[in-house]
Amino acid sequence: MREYSEDILNLLDRFLPAGAGYNHDRIDNNADSHLKAVLIGVSKTLPVVQGKLKLGTWQSIFLAELDVPGHRAVNLTILKIE
């Protein structure tokens, strides 16, 4: 799992390298982090069936810190659809 998440982060770094002259860097010098978040999104919807997370054989969940390390909150909302 770790290798997979590292591959994704390395790919994002190749597509959107830090310090590449983005206009946003004039504001707070972290444009690459914000652009990476735009590509991967900031929320996900995941199916739960009979109380269990329903993922494919090779699917998993990982959280990626794209900016400076800090305290983050994970918000979970559960909707029951009948």
At CATH level 3, the topology is Jelly Rolls
Strand content: under 5%
Number of helices: 3
Quaternary structure annotation? single chain
The major sheet is characterized as: 2 strands, antiparallel
Total domain modules? 1
Structural class: mainly alpha
* Architecture (CATH level 2) name: Sandwich
- Sheet with most strands: strand arrangement: 1-2
Radius of gyration: 16 Å
Roughly how much helix do the residues carry, as a percent range? 25-40%
What would CATH call the homologous superfamily?
YjbQ-like
Folded structure, characterized:
With 82 residues, the protein is mainly alpha-helical. It has one domain: YjbQ-like (Jelly Rolls). It is 34% helix and 5% strand. The protein is built from 3 helices and 2 strands; from the N terminus they run H-H-H-E-E. The protein has helices spanning 2-15, 25-28, 31-40, and strands at residues 48-49, 52-53. Strands 1-2 form a two-stranded antiparallel sheet. The mean pLDDT is 89.
